[in-house]
Amino acid sequence: MQAHHPHRGHPADQRSSTSPAERDPLGAASPPDTSCPAPGTCDHGNPPADLDRYDAVLFDWDGTLVNSHPLNFRGLSRACANWGLTLNESFYTSRIGTSGAELISELAAATGARVPIDEVVAQCLDLILDEIAELRTYRPVVQLAESLHGRLHLAIASGGARRAVHAGLDATGLRPLFTDVITGEDAPRGKPDPGLFLLTATRLAVAPARCLVYEDSPEGVQAAKAAGMHVVDVRCFRT
Fold it and tell me: What angle do helix axes 195-204 and 218-226 make, rounded to 10 degrees?
C-alpha cells in the first residue's frame, strides 16, 4: 500500500506548466548548463514540472547534498596508509558511489595485500568524524530539498556509513528535512545494485515508479534506474 501524501501546501504549489522562476520560489535553481549530463530530463535545480507523478524524493548524501569528498578522501587515504595501502585520488574519484568497504576490497585485491577491511573502514570513519564540523553543503541541492519539504516524503538513500551520514545530518542541520535515512549498512550491496533504493521505497511504503532520485555518481544513477525510478544527476546545478 502506498503511503499517504504529506501536506503539500496550497494548490498553487502543485504546478505542471509554469516557468522555472515560478517553480522555484526560493530562487534555488541554476540556469541550464550546457555540460548537463542529462539534457532534456534535468530541471537544473527546479522542482520538476510533473511533481504530481511522485510520492517521494530520494537524495543521495555524499556529493549530492554535501561536498564530503575532501573529508572522505583524507580519512580513507590515511586509514589505508596505516595498512600499507596507497589510495590514489584519481582511483578514489573514479569509484565515487561505491561503499568504502568495497573500495578497500578492490584496492587490496589490486595490490595483493591482505587487510582487515572492517578495521580499515572503522579507522576511516573515526578520522572523518574528527573533521565533520568542516562538512559543507551544496546549497542549490539543499534549497531544492527545502522547497520540496512538506510536499512529498523526502529520504536519504546513501551508500555511506551510518555514523558518518547521521553525524553529517546533525552537523549541517539538515536532519528535519527527511522522513527516513537509509545507509550502506542497511543493504547487502552498495550502488550500482538497486537494493538500497528499493529498500528506501519499501520503508516509505511508496512504489519505486513513484520515486524521484537525485544523485551525483554514475553508480548511483545506474542503481536508481535499475530500481525503476526516475533519476536526476545534480552535477550541473549543485555548485
Answer: 60
Rounded-to-integer distance, Cα 24 and Cα 13, Å: 10
pTM, entire model: 0.78
The single-letter code of the amino acid at 186 is D
Domain-wise residue ranges, the chain: 14-67+136-236, 69-133
Strands (E), 125-171: 136-137, 153-157
Residue type, 163: R
CB 65 within 8 A of CB 59: yes
In this structure, CATH architecture of domain 69-133: Orthogonal Bundle (1.10)
pLDDT band of residue 221 (cuts 50, 70, 90) is: very high
| Grid coordinates given for 190 | 552498495
Residue type, 201: A
pLDDT digits (tens, 9 = 90+) for 175-203: 999 999 999 899 988 889 999 999 999 99
Left, alpha or beta for 187 (phi > 0: left; psi -120 to 50: alpha)? Answer: beta
Superfamily assignment of 14-67+136-236 in CATH? HAD superfamily/HAD-like (3.40.50.1000)
pLDDT tens digits, residue range 28-54?
333 444 556 655 556 677 888 899 999
Residue from 173, 104, 119, 100 nearest 142 by CA = 173
Contact in structure between 29 and 140 (CB atoms under 8 Å)? yes
